[in-house]
Amino acid sequence: MRPDLTEEILPALMTWLSAVREYSGRVAKAAGIGVTDLEALHELAQEGPMSSGLLARRLCVTTGAITHLVDRLQDADLVRRVPDPADRRRVLVEISPEAAERIRCDYRPLVDAVRGTLSALDVTEQQSVLRFLTAGTADVRTLR
């Protein structure tokens, strides 16, 4: 029987998430923007253009708050509103190429650190991490 390390993994995962949030806080402060603004930029950089409504749900903010957030980011030339190619009546929010590059640069040290940690794992361990992250993300996105 395999040992179950769930009760050891859960607190370690929460600690890792806290460390990533702390890093993001430093990135936001250095960029002169709020953490929620940075989270919006990160979401758009990772997932691509999306409606304001979906962005609001991803960030757990109201539609009124997301309107102000997008206005603020648009005024700073970090995002733009563009027509939805599938339905020109809808508008999507997309990150500007300059902001996307800034996000990549700001997160490069974190990405490099995680890459180093992952490269120390063998392929089977990496597959387990990937399987956990893929399934875990899908599970968390279904929570209300």
Automatic annotation (TrEMBL):
Gene3D superfamilies: Winged helix-like DNA-binding domain superfamily/Winged helix DNA-binding domain. Pfam families: MarR. SMART domains: HTH_MARR. PROSITE patterns: HTH_MARR_2 (PS50995). InterPro entries: HTH_MarR-typ, MarR/SlyA-like, WH-like_DNA-bd_sf, WH_DNA-bd_sf. Residues 1-144 form the HTH marR-type domain. PANTHER family: TRANSCRIPTIONAL REGULATOR, MARR FAMILY, TRANSCRIPTIONAL REGULATORY PROTEIN. This is MarR family transcriptional regulator. It comes from Georgenia halotolerans.
